[in-house]
Specification:
With 742 residues, the chain is of the alpha+beta class. It is built from 16 helices and 36 strands.
Length: 742
Amino acid sequence: MGATSHRSGAAGRAPVADGPASVRNVALVGHSGSGKTTLVEALALAAGAVPRAGRVEDGSTVSDHDGAEHRRGGSVQLSLVPLSWDGIKVNLLDTPGYADFVGELRAGLRAADAALFVVAASDGIDGPTRAVWDECAAVGMPRAVVVTHLEAARADYARTADVCGEVFGGEDPNAVVPLHLPRYGPAGPDGHAPVTGLLGLLSGRVHDYSSGERVERDADPAERETVARARARLIEAVIAGSEDEGLMERYLGGADIDAGTLVGDLERAVARGALHPVLMAAPAVGDSRQGLGTVELLELVTRGFPSPLERPPVAVTAPDGAARPALVCDPDGPLVAEVVRTSSDPYVGRVCLVRVFSGTLRPERPVHVCGHGRSGWEGPGEGPGEGSGEESHEADERAGALSFPFGGQQRPADRCAAGDLVCVARLAGAGTGDTLSDPRDPLLMEPWPLPDPLLPLAVEAHGTADEDKLSQGLARLAAEDPTLRLELNPQTHQVVLWCLGEAHQEVALERLRTRHGVRVDAVPYRVSLRETFGARATGRGRHVKQSGGHGQFAVCEIEVEPLPPGSGVEFVDEVVGGAVPRPFVASVEKGVRAQAARGTGSGHPLVDVRVTLVDGKAHPVDSCDAAFQTAGALALREAAAGARVHLLEPVAEVAVVVPEEYVGPVMSDLAGRRGRVTGSEPAGPGLSRVRAEVPESEIGRYAVELRSVSHGTGRFGRAYLRHEPVPPPIVDRWREQGHKGS
């Protein structure tokens, strides 16, 4: 953009905003390895927030300070990096790029007012990044594109900028246009020419970084000719995006338009979300402080991106759902803040990163914590088990100390006004997604959309000491990560963590061990199997026991017949003549139902049968409740031994949304999982929804395998449909493999 003096914040000092107008909240979005964290570190160095590249004074990294991130070599959680540029506080929200941590990405977008999409010049744009762009477009969030990895041998800035226009621009590729052209230095031994500067398309000036610092100069004749060819397209995009009709008339009339006017219209077009500039950036080299394009990017963020004051009013309700007026960003308004990340600190306990949308948050003041329930989630089998979701909750708590995070440091703050982000200590009952408000006027924000975790991981405590801490550790883990679901399956009696992917599972187990001191072992996940009769059968239960004194005597005869799916177990009394006294009929029923719950041989519950008591015998002295319960159970086992008993498995209704080019591979893959495709339908521009019925035993890892089939572009949902008989060849294979169900 235009020439600007390099006014920046001092290293080691937490930037403080004068008010919402001097804040910019920006989320960095891009696939894993695109260079988001490196870009954040380069911007922090250019702004003077750190004394050396990527490091805070205490030696911690600027963005990644989670132990799992250091070990994995990439971001796994949302990180806030505040810095100051030209009197504006910039909150950079570094989001993970891997699909398993999309919950952190959603939280970052919720807290941000604009987004920087980071695209590697050597890799291009993947499907998930394009999907996030479309989500931002749907809500009108201002966006810009930053091209990184310009030093790679396969890097091609011009081609990457064109691809960004084609992919992100959609029907209007001219809405995504470069602000600069690269200026190349001499080619190296490998033939690759490094980018040493930028040619400003609006200013017509050269920003030379070859010395390690940004130096501006006038373009030479050859450079002016290069700029002229691309400048006309940018000017037309700026005029169209800003809707400046007067400027359009002047441009069409051939009038010379000064750079200042164009820059002003550019800033308005970017803030409106109508124009998405493409920039380039690279980290500083050697002892230099300003990496290629970092100054231009900071200028765009501070001058082109909107302040929190320009964000649409926030919709809120009372905790009971009663409508309340939407709130604008006003430090003097009612307090409304939202927890966007929760973590545990060994010294201060739970620490919540919150975005304040209205009012002013102060330390050591009471706040009302209110959270949505997690109803509506459908786990495996016949619905979520005990502990599968968190109910809505609210309570009054006292906010602890406020601080601005920076790497591994927490810099104290005496307040946080509307529009800014801050960390709050000691909110023991708050979880990610909860709303903080004034206890005298409690309010609740709508939750942001999150994907359902559909990859199960069954766990058991490693030892006795871990059993005592398991429940509390899992509860804390779920409070920190709303994309993690806990389930105690009442059918299989397994503790199951439902995750988004394998990396999500690994990080969850690592945090459980390192943060909460709980070690667990992963065990095979089991689906909830059932059994039923395939035909009518009869059984006789005889329980006679004589051991001195009163003995036990009971005989009963039953008939068992299959019922339609979903009927459960019915019990009918057709005894005539009092062969089984009335009080003992209930005893027989109790014994039959208890045996049905245990199964008749395979260990899986018996369902969808009618058991009819037709005859029996009793003794006036030795018959008792326990004897007839035992006889009823024996009769059911005998009936099963002489009948065809089918093993039933749960079948899920699956809906897969993928780009149209992947419909064929998805259908083939589902068919290979014993699935029955029931149809397909449009699911949006270029998307199709494939519906199928698939045994749950075949889709335990589908959350991972769908990514491979669809190249990361697919998503799916599942819901329990019914239980169906398992084909005999599959039963035989399971027996050979020692397969276990519930």
